[in-house]
């Protein structure tokens, strides 16, 4: 089954935990300095301040491949240019993924920020899928301590820089 907005079974870390109990989907985008129509966009708001763009996982592992980077850039542009269309596709993909996991009798887990720091919790998506366990990492301290949907776990990500 193909998904447009995320991948399943291709992350070296998550596949170790996938199997009889869980299956994990992850969205990878281009997090830093994406130029679209002459405007620069950052999907990681604190990338400059935290200096995490230097060692970002965006280009680690399979992320080094041109085709993978192009796919991530395309997804990023789609999200920026047509956010409603992207979110509609994401909801469709989450529905299919959730149904697939239910048929297999396993728990769906989704990380929407594989290489970004988008505040998905403000978009009402997670509440539509109470059976999915969402999780992410963030550098935004206020986000980590905010009221979150009950099916969303957010971990404050380490940074050597002093970020608020």
In short:
This protein has 164 residues and is α/β, with parallel strands linked by helices. It has helices spanning 47-50, 66-81, 83-104, 141-144, and strands at 7-8, 22-26, 34-36, 39-41, 107-111, 133-138, 152-156.
Descriptive key words:
single chain, 164 residues, alpha/beta, five-stranded mixed β-sheet, two-stranded antiparallel ribbon, 4 helices, 7 strands, 28% helix, 18% strand
Provide an overview of this structure.
This protein has 164 residues and is of the alpha/beta class. It has one domain (7-156). 28% of the residues lie in helices and 18% in strands. It has four helices and seven strands; from the N terminus they run ββββαααββαβ. The chain has helices spanning 47-50, 66-81, 83-104, 141-144, and strands spanning 7-8, 22-26, 34-36, 39-41, 107-111, 133-138, 152-156. It has a five-stranded mixed beta sheet with strand order 1-2-5-6-7. A hairpin with a 2-residue loop joins β3 and β4. The model has no long low-confidence stretch (mean pLDDT 82).
Q: Roughly how many Å apart are the termini?
A: 40 Å
Main sheet makeup: 5 strands, mixed
Radius of gyration from the alpha-carbon trace, in angstroms: 16 Å
The tally of helices reads 4
Question: What topology does this entry show?
Answer:
Blueprint: E1 7-8, E2 22-26, E3 34-36, E4 39-41, H1 47-50, H2 66-81, H3 83-104, E5 107-111, E6 133-138, H4 141-144, E7 152-156
Parallel strand pairs: 2-5, 5-6, 6-7
Antiparallel strand pairs: 1-2, 3-4
């Amino acid at each position: 089954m193909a998904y447009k907005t995320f991948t399943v079974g291709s992350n070296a870390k998550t596949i170790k935990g996938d199997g009889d109990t869980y299956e994990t989907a992850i969205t990878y985008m281009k997090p830093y300095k994406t130029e679209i129509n002459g405007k620069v966009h950052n999907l990681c708001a604190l990338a400059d301040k935290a200096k995490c763009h230097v060692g970002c996982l965006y280009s680690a592992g399979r992320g080094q491949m041109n085709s993978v980077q192009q796919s991530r850039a395309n997804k990023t542009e789609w999200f920026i240019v047509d956010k409603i269309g992207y979110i509609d596709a994401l909801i469709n993909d989450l529905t299919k993924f959730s149904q697939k996991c239910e048929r297999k009798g396993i728990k769906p887990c989704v990380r929407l920020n594989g290489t970004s720091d988008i505040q998905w919790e403000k978009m009402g998506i997670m509440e539509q899928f109470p059976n999915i366990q969402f999780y992410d990492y963030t550098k935004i301290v206020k986000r980590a301590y905010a009221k979150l949907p009950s099916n969303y776990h957010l971990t404050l990500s380490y940074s050597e820089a002093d970020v608020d």
